[in-house]
Amino acid sequence: MTRPGRTERKTRAPRPKHARTLSTMDKLTVVLMVVVPALIVTGLVWVPAISTVVLSFTDWNGIGNISDMNFIGGQNYVDVTSNYPPFGPAMEHNLIWLVVFFFGPTLLGIFLAVLLDREIRGSRIYQSIFFLPVVLSLALIGFVWQLIYSRDQGLLNAVFGGQTDWFGDPDINLWAVLVAAGWRHTGYIMLLYLAGLKAVDPALREAAAVDGATEVRTFFQVIWPVMRPVNIVVLVITVIESLRAFDIVWVINKGRNGLELISTLVTQNVIGEASRVGFGSALATIMIAISTVFIVIYLIQVMREQR
Amino acid sequence: MTAAVQETPVRTPVRRPQRRRPARVVLTVFLTVMAVGWVFPVAWAFYNSLRDYDFTSTHGYFSFGGFTLDNYVDAWTRGNFGQTFYNSMVITVPSVVITLLLASSAAYVLARYTFKFNLALLALFTAANLLPQQALLVPLFRMFLNIEVPFWFSDSGSLYDTYYAVIAVNIAFQTGFCTFVLSNYMKTIPKEMTEAALVDGAGVFRQFWQVVLPLCRPALAALATLQITWVYNDFFWAVAFMRTGDKFPVTSSLQNLRGQFFTDYNLLSAGSVIVAIPTLVIFFLLQRHLRAGLTLGATKG
């Protein structure tokens, strides 16, 4: 964006600083305008997140008074890791989710963006088509893909004549889910990357072409380094989305039988009858710990751009 | 990377047209195959939603014919869509409106005035949207269950199982992201615009409401479109904070259509199409805004 006012301002007579001209009423307005939203975000996001971490060191079962709870150190974490069979598979599934998302949909999305960034006839139409699943919720995607995966009425078995229950068989359902979820993630990454590529200075590409670089070389040695901020955003989004994955497995079977994820374990332990608050909090704290690393990476990137 | 890229030796700009041809063909074929594969799941659901169950069960799904609209009528009543659409609207509209109001006012202050804590506040807002929802679940669930409210306010006597709980959490979760996007946008608006208003004697709030906010219309449109899609699509907060069946948003209607032992997939297809309609309308009519909203947040617009 251009700022036409910028150059003009320098020629004008100096004016008192903005903040100094504020009346008491205005000062109050300014404070309220930022404090109210900040309090809401703090109260409903940050305080709960920190409370989760605190609760994970207690034995509170959610029923008694909060004053009845005892701090029991890392006992919940010992229980989670050594005494809770679904934990191992859930960690493994989340990790598989991340690795598959990264090497599948994320790279495919980047690749499609690079292809569609060139002058291709109908590029907008291709973009729209790959973007389509992004507007659907993951829960809905779970239902839509049942028409393809169902054992008795699904398309896959009708075409290939098998008897596989794609969403039900614990050996393969995670992979079937990943195809469906990746269908959405690819379009999302393509969109983000394409926006980044559009912002790259065309002169860079022209200079590389004049120097005789191939398109592949131009991409890896000229475009890729310039795209560093977008690359980081894409990496963070892929990790966070893999960690957050929930809706699609919840509508399929509530995250059981081969589809255990940390997110579904937390939910199972907290809502419904089995309210194991401390234990569920320990599981949630593991999610917080992992996501914090990537949130910090993201913030460093974003705040650097703010300067 | 596939041949489409590698087979493009662009040595000198002059030779480009002839040598590019085969690569172009490969590229077009590749993209077309991918695109057809991409729309297929949606097209398949739509196709079968228009077909009679008896026809597909005798001829198989891999057939042509048996067209009817009965599935839609049936799905609408059996899925209780009238009620669940209403519920989704009651949750989505206030969530999006309040989110944008809060976010734009916070963004205005952060973009226009310089405090010591500016960057820290921006980080507080920006990071909030990146936490996994489950990280907040335990305390929020307990909190809503334990906050007592009068019965005229909620049947359950607490905030649990009310729209208020879901709306409040949606607002808190989305405000951070919108604040970040809007403050970046507002920084591109020249300060002279508000200084002129200041000279005319307008207070801070009027400068914000009558000068800056109207200039943010493109960003607000993009965010509104994006937020409507996100809040409408949200499933987790409703699962977490709702219990009564007829308060759930639309996605739960699909669960009503799925039987315990037997599922009529034509009916489920029709239901899926019904659920997708609002977001598909946005996709076809407001795609520009939606894409702007998504990319404004990720790359500095």
Automatic annotation (TrEMBL), chain B:
Q: Which Gene3D superfamilies match?
A: MetI-like (1.10.3720.10)
> Which residues span the membrane?
25-47, 85-110, 117-142, 162-183, 267-286
Membrane topology classification: Multi-pass membrane protein
The record's subcellular locations are: Cell membrane
Task: Domain (ABC transmembrane type-1): give its ranges.
Answer: 85-286
Q: Which InterPro entries match?
A: MetI-like, MetI-like_sf
Ordered alphabetically, the record's keywords are:
Cell membrane, Membrane, Sugar transport, Transmembrane, Transmembrane helix, Transport
Q: Name one GO biological process term.
A: transmembrane transport
An example Pfam family from this entry, by short name, is BPD_transp_1
Q: Does the keyword Membrane apply?
A: yes
> Can you list the GO cellular component terms from the UniProt entry?
plasma membrane
Give the similarity note. Belongs to the binding-protein-dependent transport system permease family.
Q: Can you say what this protein is called?
A: Multiple sugar transport system permease protein
Q: Which organism is it from?
A: Actinophytocola algeriensis
